[in-house]
Known about the structure:
This protein has helices at residues 104-114, 118-125, 163-172, 177-198, 209-229, 257-262, 280-289, 350-362, 393-403, 451-461, 465-479; strands at residues 14-20, 26-32, 65-69, 93-97, 133-142, 145-154, 161-162, 206-207, 232-235, 238-240, 244-247, 250-253, 268-270, 292-293, 299-308, 319-327, 338-345, 367-374, 380-389, 410-414, 421-428, 431-438, 446-449.
Amino acid sequence: MSRPNHTPRSHDNVHTREHSDALGHAHPHSHAHDHDHDHDHDRDHQHGHDHDHEHGHDDDHQHEHRHVHGAAVSAHTERRQPELERGAGEGKLLFLDAPSGIAGDMTIAALVDLGVPFAEVERVVGCLPLDGYRLELSRGFAGAIGASHFQVHIDGAQPERRYAEIDALLAEAALPPRTQSLARAIFRRLAEAEAEVHRVDLEDVHFHEVGALDAIVDIVGAAACFDFLGANVVASPLPLGRGSVECRHGVLPLPAPAALLCLRGVPTYDAGIAAELVTPTGAAIAATVASSFASWPSFIPEHVGWGKGTRELPDRPNALRAVLGEPWAAAAGAHATHVVVEANVDDLTGELAGHALVALLRAGALDAWLTPIQMKKGRPGLILSALCPINAADQLGAVLLRETSSLGYRKSAVTRGERPRRMIEVHTPWGGIPVKVSTGPWGSPQIKPEFDVCAARAEAHGIQVREVVQVALNLARDQLGLSR
C-alpha cells in the first residue's frame, strides 16, 4: 500500500479526557492536537494511495474538534443546522455532488455536516470488534466554504487483513442489517477490483495494516449514514485526475487501477489536474450506493452538507457536497432528467444489433432496446434506442455511430419517474447474491435477485436457477423484515 505525503498539523489546544476502550475500561488520555502520529495512512486499499484524501486546507480556520477512541463515543456540538431524524431521507433524493472527487472520509464528513448525527457513526462503528483507532471530526474551511472534516487515527500497529477475514468480521459484527449489507457490498466491490488488479483470488486480497482498518471504518461509517437517511442516492459524474502515485509496491498511474475498476458503469471526466481525486474507497462507495448519475438532478434542495479533504487543490475547493431534497414530478415543458438517443438502420444483422445494444449498456446506458420499423422503399429496419443521463447523450451517440452504419443519431429529452432503489446482498448456501430492492409509496417493495449471479451460482453447483432465485428472494425478505 502506498504512503501518501501526510501533512502533520499543529494545534495549540490540548484536551485531556477519559476514553473507554472496546472492553469498557476507562483510560485517562491526554493528547495534544499536534498529531505527530500521522501513521502514513494507507487509506482504503492495499495500495492506499492517499486514502486520507488529504487535499485540503492547512486547517488554520478549524475551531472545533471531537475525538473518539476505539468504540467510545463523544458529543458533537456547534452544528450548522439541526440534526436530522432517522429516515429523514425516505422518499427523497440524496445528491452527492463531487466536483473535487470523493473519498470515504469526505463522504462521512459531508453526510454528518448534512445532518446525520455523528453519534450514529460512533455508535455503529463502535459495534465492530476492533480497537487501536480514534475518530476525529473537526470544523474547517474548503476555500471559503465552511465544512466538516473526518479522520481515522490509528494508534499503534495493526494486523494485515485479508478480504475473507474482513467480510467475516462485518458479517459477524452486531451491525444494523441494512448497514451491514451495504458495507459488505461496498467492500466486496473494492476487493473484487483489487483482485483483478493483482490477479489473485478474491479471498486472498490483502489490505495491509493501517489501510485495512481505515477502509473498514470509512465504509461502515458511510454505510451507517446512508442507512440512517434512507434516501435514493444520485451522484454527479466523477472527476479523475492524472499523474502517478508512489505506493508500497511501486509507482502506479492515476486514476488508481483499483479505483478505475470500481468505476465500471460510472460516468467520469478529465479533471484537468495531476492529483488523485477519487480514491478506491470513494469509487466503491459511489458506484455501490448511487442508483443513477446526473450533473444535477431535478429536485427541491432542503439540506446541504460539505465534507472537506485535507490537501489543497490548485483550482477548486476540495470538498464533497451532499444535498438532500424532495424530487418533483416534471410537468409538460419542465426540465428533462434524461435523454433517449436513437438511430434508424436498415442493414444491421441480428448479431450486430445485439452487439450494439451490449456496447450501449457498457457505455453507460440505463436501458437499451430495439424496435422493428419499416423504412423508405419498404425496407425492414430497426430503431436502436438508449436511455441515459443528459450528460451521457453524445457519448452514447458516438457508440451508435461506431457500432452501426447510421450517419447520425437523434436525442429526445424525457423525464423519468422512478422508485427509490438500493442493493443488498444475501448469503445463500451457494454464495452471496446481490438483490435489488425498490421502495416508495406504491405498495409493497419490489425485490429482485440479480438473475445473472443466480444463474452462475446454479451452474456452478448443478442446481436449478429457479431454486437459487427463490432462496435468495426468501433471504432478502427475511433480511428486510417482510413476510414471505
